[in-house]
Amino acid sequence: MLESASVYVRGYPSTVTEVDLRRHFQGCGAISRIDLRADVGNGPFAYVDFDTVAAGKEAVVFKHNSFLHDGRLFVSYTENRMPPPLPPPAARSSDDDTNVVYVQQNPRHTTIDDFRAHFADCGTIEHISMRQPDAVFIEFADVAAAREAVRRKDGSMMQESRIRVRMSHKAKGRTTPPPPSSLPSPPPMVTIMQSPPTETPTVAGDPRSPWLFSYEKTLTTPSYLAGIPSDLEADLRQTTSWYIEDLGKKFNLPLIAVVTAQTYMNRFYMLHAFSTHDRFLVGAAALFLSAKTNECVIKLTDVAEKSLGLVDGGKSPTAGDLDLVKTKLRQYEVVLLNTLSYDVVVPQPFLALAALVDRAALEVDLPRSTILVVAEVFLKDAVAGTLALQLTMDELAAGALYLSCLAHSLDGWLRETTLFAHVHIDTVSHLLLGLYPKSRLPAKLQAAAK
């Protein structure tokens, strides 16, 4: 078949969502549309439509036989660019005579009000039951409204996901969802595979964390919606992270406190725009709050003085400037706490990395410090931006260690070891390499970045 900008994908489990596929193929090129389908005989499949033929070729070359949620993908060209959605069945069974619909493949961080607004034009909504994000039942005033919801909203985009809407098979009038044991498992939100846990800490890096965002969410941030280009926002995040690191050094704060502050800052700007909140005040307040969280004693006056010194090039601040900045820092500490919903304990990928490096050092003929120093470079750059908001700490640690070993020409060991079996390491390492222009990478890693 001739090369095409549209590819056919199958082989993934039924729990995979459009967001999962978009994340898996995002490194190949810009994606214009994904159409998820299901076939009784062959299981789920999808058409992924890229903007260019070159992107479609890269998907076939590099993603065929790759793994997605324990499934090995089959990827091939297709001549049909995004067939139209399947029409609704002509005949309806008695099970369809219900005023309740069941909504699947929902975006994360949605509320009952979001669903009410999305389905408001279908008819009068009597009740919405939302026990978990992927088990949402909407009860309409009549059967006609429920059928209209299926007709109009099945396959529609809700935030970053294309949702599925079906007539519910619940007993008519019952508004509570069936027992959890009878519902399908919610789809994994990141690339973690279903395998035994590793020795790295996992509680704070739980993939169900509300602070893990899809790739699309990290592109459509409040700053972007306020008119700040994505590349400029990435620079603002990175330089603000460096500012937090430099400020932390002035107080000799441990790495865990600095990483916590950088995470606070990056989470804050997923809900606020850089154009409306001074990034240096946010960064300094994040470090001040992080020091308290990690039981490090620093004075507010010292934070104000040293932060002003960094911003103003070392000039001595006036008493008026100090008082003003101290007042602002107190205010932003409260704003940060409210934005974070007082969720101040964050994942620590450097702890996860240290545990993985200890295990790797037992298997390779390289000093532990040699492996760790390169891995920490990758990890620091990931924490400075939004990639740390897309991947769990175990994924970040595994990807950083994998690239360090690859840079040290440990190819043979990488092919044989099971140390990275808990993540889709090809996907994670590709995302990490995407942080850098290809020309900046050593030759060994340039080949991996193809």
From TrEMBL:
PROSITE patterns noted in UniProt: RRM
A molecular function GO annotation: cyclin-dependent protein serine/threonine kinase regulator activity
Record-linked InterPro entries: Cyclin-like_sf (IPR036915), Cyclin/Ssn8 (IPR043198), Cyclin_N (IPR006671), Nucleotide-bd_a/b_plait_sf (IPR012677), RBD_domain_sf (IPR035979), RRM_dom (IPR000504)
Highest taxon of the lineage: Eukaryota
SUPFAM superfamilies xref list: Cyclin-like (SSF47954), RNA-binding domain, RBD (SSF54928)
Domain spans labelled RRM: 5-80, 99-170
Pfam families cross-referenced by the UniProt entry: Cyclin_N, RRM_1
A biological process term (GO) from this entry: regulation of transcription by RNA polymerase II
Compositional bias ranges of the Basic residues kind: 164-173
Keywords on record: RNA-binding
Region (Disordered): 154-187
Bias (Pro residues): 176-187
Entry protein name: Aste57867_5218 protein
Organism of origin: Aphanomyces stellatus
Gene name of this polypeptide: Aste57867_5218
